[in-house]
Specification:
242 residues; single chain; alpha+beta; 3-stranded antiparallel β-sheet; 10 strands
């Protein structure tokens, strides 16, 4: 069975399911073995923007198809070749369907950033969808299983423009809002991968945004991503802002 057909089985199972499914459930429903293969497929689909992954109520990471305008994305676009479709190929295939500012390169970089931050904090961090008391559900880039740390990642390279600063402040508002519904209050982190991008939000910058983050107890943490990933993010930014 090819990687492409296994991917199609996973997408079909998610399309037919009335609820998100974890990797074990997907392996059982699709017959794709070993389970690790399902995990690899779902991670590739997550990076491509076709699937969301977050921690379910039983502590397992679950998968859900991303909703698109006009309905749910039932399956990934096909490629012209008939051979196995590697994860990188899935990312390239779906890249054109991602909104501006959310390229596959940036999403991949944010996944790497989350892993690097987890290493620094000695925690395993995964994307999550959190329900607040009002019933609203909101996605965050990462948290640990105990939800003691909530994280938003921003892979941007270079000094941010005004509109890009607003994106960071919107992430800060989201973290603060979610934390206000949780007890004890979790640690809040804005994770970045370029000192130049982080500088306006650091306490030494003397900007109102930096002071606001400080007063709200939101930490700006900079991780060092591999140079090849950094260059791919820069190239993606150039494409988006031409």
């Amino acid at each position: 069975m090819t990687a492409a057909s296994n991917r199609d089985r996973v997408l079909e199972a998610l399309r037919l399911s009335s609820r998100p499914l974890d990797d074990d459930q997907l392996s059982q429903r699709t017959g794709v073995r070993p389970r690790q293969q399902v995990n690899q497929i779902c991670r590739a689909l997550q990076l491509a923007g076709a699937v969301r992954r977050w921690e379910g109520p039983d502590g397992k990471i679950v998968n859900e198809l991303v909703e698109r305008t006009g309905g749910v994305l039932a399956e990934a676009p096909r490629t012209p070749h008939s051979g196995p479709l590697a994860p990188a190929a899935v990312v390239r295939t779906l890249d054109d369907h991602l909104p501006a500012g959310h390229s596959a390169e940036q999403r991949h970089a944010e996944r790497v950033m989350l892993d690097l931050l987890g290493r620094d904090l000695a925690l395993t961090l995964e994307p999550a969808k959190i329900a607040v008391p009002s019933g609203a559900r909101v996605e965050i880039d990462g948290c640990d299983s105990g939800r003691t740390v909530l994280v938003e990642c921003w892979a941007h390279q270079g000094p941010p423009k005004s509109a890009q600063r607003h994106k960071v402040l919107a992430d800060a508002l989201k973290l603060t809002w979610i934390a206000s519904t949780m007890y004890p209050r979790p640690r809040l982190v804005l994770c970045m991968s370029d000192p130049a991008a982080a500088r306006p939000f650091q306490p030494t910058s003397r900007t109102w945004a930096a002071q606001a983050l400080l007063d709200l107890a939101i930490t700006v943490h900079v991780v060092e991503i591999p140079d090849d990933i950094r260059q791919k993010v820069r190239a993606a930014q150039e494409r988006q802002y031409r």
